[in-house]
Amino acid sequence: MVFILNTPLFFPLKSLLLCYNAWDWVYTMQPAYMSIICLLGVIGNSFVLSVFCLQKRRSSVADIYLSNLAAADLLMVSCLPFWVATIINKFHWRFGEPMCQLINIVIGMNYYCSVLFLTLVSVDRYLALTRPLTQGRERRAFWARWICFSIWIAGVLLSFPAILFRSVQFFPHLGIDACYLAYPHEGWRLRYNMTVSIVGFLIPVPIVSFCSYHITKVLQSSQKMRKGSSGSVERKAAYLVLVVLAVFVLCWLPYQILIFLDTLDHYEVVFGCTWAHVLDIGNQLATYLGYSNSSLNPFLYVIVGKHFKKVSAIYRRTKHHRRGSDVTTYQRSVVSTYINRTEHIKPVVIFYAKDQM
């Protein structure tokens, strides 16, 4: 992320003052926006994780992916208060160098993990719907846990520059100690930007789009064969698939565009004070718009579900030691499709109550 600290010192004073004035609204509005993201994300993802912990039945593959997605999102939004305080203090970092590195490696790690877990959820739904008779091994919980573990390790490795190159530096012209990412060589910036774009967007988006298209196609086909409430439920499930994809793209596409523009700035295709600050402010807006996806995920996958009230009731009943069968009854969704194999109609669970509209 590029901040005002990168501003050259040789621009005319009048131009610099105009550029710096553009940051006043950032110091005012951005902390409030980030605080809302943090609050909603902590509440929503904590609720999702608590529901998974309180359920009595054995976790399915979808449960494992969704719980890891919620954990990644919760960790990410939990780090935002540190940046809220920093922006209020005009990027003066008060928490020491170890926290500077830790907070940013957690944010970087969970950026990758959140995107990849979301991709896994889409792939799992696609396989469960389109290939229900070939999921004996692929959908086993054992392999799902190992896949999730591998993604967490990959997230740590991909965010390693936060440990190597993040440090607290004093900037005399601003009079602040800033948590600053200083690359030892400019080639690192290009490699980092390419990694963020490829791993965090260019690979996941086509996969999620492919899965969403085929899920929607099968659900719509099944809807034509069915009438009444069942067809209506499948139509809503198809809408949910498209909404999840649209929200993901809308949240992260601006950030990817700014990554590309930052690369152009790196090669000095465009330069100047105005451009530098447009890029800096754009990075601020795009970055935290992307983080808002971590606050929206639990609402998209769980809280907007048709059986949210039932899940909430289960959550409350657990404090009164209700039977585990109550949990199991409501955990399975009513969404199913007809698969004609060996002249038998086999119902296939696609969505759980946690993610069904």
From TrEMBL:
InterPro entries in the cross-refs: Brdyknn_rcpt, CCR1-9-like, GPCR_Rhodpsn, GPCR_Rhodpsn_7TM
Gene Ontology process terms (BP): calcium-mediated signaling; cell chemotaxis; immune response; positive regulation of cytosolic calcium ion concentration
Transmembrane residue ranges: 32-54, 66-89, 101-121, 142-165, 194-216, 237-255
Highest taxon in the source lineage: Eukaryota
Main location: membrane
GO molecular function: bradykinin receptor activity; C-C chemokine binding; C-C chemokine receptor activity
Pfam families found in the cross-reference section: 7tm_1
Domain G-protein coupled receptors family 1 profile: 44-301
Membrane topology summary: Multi-pass membrane protein
Keyword Cell cycle attached: no
Sorted UniProt keywords: Cell membrane, Disulfide bond, G-protein coupled receptor, Glycoprotein, Lipoprotein, Membrane, Palmitate, Phosphoprotein, Receptor, Transducer, Transmembrane, Transmembrane helix
Gene Ontology cellular-component terms listed: external side of plasma membrane
UniProt KW Glycoprotein keyword: yes
Compartments reported by the entry: Cell membrane
Subunit composition and interactions: Forms a complex with PECAM1 and GNAQ. Interacts with PECAM1.
Function: Receptor for bradykinin. It is associated with G proteins that activate a phosphatidylinositol-calcium second messenger system.
Family: Belongs to the G-protein coupled receptor 1 family.
Listed name of the protein: B2 bradykinin receptor
